[in-house]
Amino acid sequence: MKRLYLIGGPMGVGKTAACRELQRRLDRSAFLDGDWCWDANPFRVTEETKAMVTENICFLLNNFLRCSAYDHVIFCWVLHQQEILDGLLSRVDTRSCAVRAVSLTASPEALAARIEADIRAGRREPDALERSLSYLPRYAALSTEKLDVSRLTPEETAERILEGCL
Length: 166
Known about the structure:
Elements: E1 2-8, H1 15-25, E2 29-33, H2 47-66, E3 72-77, H3 82-91, E4 97-105, H4 108-120, H5 128-135, E5 145-148, H6 154-163
Helix pairs in contact: 1-6, 2-3, 4-5
């Protein structure tokens, strides 16, 4: 049976790094970062662009899940609202796969330290810190498994996800 991993969390928490590690550890795996489906300049959030990105994500996830070359499909995105998760799952054919939805969280201090390091390195804009911290409390209300990664490396995060020890 195929597995679909849905990995959410605030920006800067380490989703992409953990998912890259999952991909390295899982043979016959495909990885999709939701940000890749919405990489535009200027970045604009409108009803039209939100519909487009959702369609892009669902199209790619369905194709990965249908493809016999892959047993594991790994997807990450901010996924900070239950409606977003439910909307994606309503449009992705999961009948022949096990779905694992995990929200990566961190203490505000640990998240701030990660974001600030990204800002110093030029990987994020200064406004990312406030936005990321504002999303953090939203994950408690989601129907997902929660994993606090405050003190975990991407390798340790991937291991916990694979072991199911959240």
